[in-house]
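Example record

The entry below shows one chain as it appears in the dataset: sequence first, then structure tokens.
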Amino acid sequence: MRTAPTLALTLISGALFIGCGNDDIAVDGTYTATAVWDLSAPFGRDGIGGAFADLLIEESVSAAVPGLIEDEAIDLTSTLIRAPIKGLVEGRLPDELKEDGEVLIGLRDALGNVEVQTELVLDEDIEGSEKVTRLTVPTTGTPFVVNAADLPAGVSVAAEIEGDRKERDRIELKPYDLQLRYGDFILILVGDLLNRDVAALTNQTNAAIPCDVVVNEITGGDGKFEFEVASKEFSISAGALQSACDLVKDKLSEYALGLVRLDSGVQLSGQVTLLDADLDNRADTLSSDTDYEGRITLLPGPFEPRFSVNFVATRN
């Protein structure tokens, strides 16, 4: 006689349990996040000469070719003259600034596993902000620490965040840009970690780019550089190449060692798992999924290297 009521109670209890289990885990709150980023890609490419060649080709071609075929023209021109421009510049750099020199190798090693601490704030609509508070570079001795306050005055290393609910315990953060001032961070490492004179290295970089020699390398002394794209012929005069080279050299004052814009940033996005250890239906910890990634933005040329991001954020 008790079988039916008992079964009914069991079904009701099960339904209640299932209902509670499907409630979304609340994410609103403030978290301290620690992540590991690999920011070494710009120093594993092909050096200052390659970066300069990219800038010069883009500047020269964009002024001579209509927008519809500009990208095709840049690609073609790169195959024709990028290597000799790069070789010319690399050959004039001091040994420590070459692509296999002590400075670039030192930066490559230092930037491979940068620990980044941020403050992450989210509301119930999965909107909020993230702000970098500290970057730590591992060394063989005491880790090298750069606080956000050590970056140039007025820099806000922060970003607005928007996301979507994917599952009960998973959200996805849409791409958002952290204005890291990556180039300024590089100069701090060069000066304070590698113990180099930043101003002297900058002057040596500029001296390795004699525009008259670069133009002669491109034109072969013919007074112009000619090429064909989409069945159309184009010509860039030596004078136009000289002007483009002078302009690019002026731009290098906005770059760290001619490689990275001072205001380069980092864009992040991906899915995040919500962990509720005390079962109160509020996330205690956020953990990046395998698809969470970053990319370094505003580098010379069409080059925005991606890197994996592993982070854990704990509720304050």
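Notes for this example: The first strand starts at residue 29 and ends at 37. Confidence is low (pLDDT under 50) at residues 6-21.
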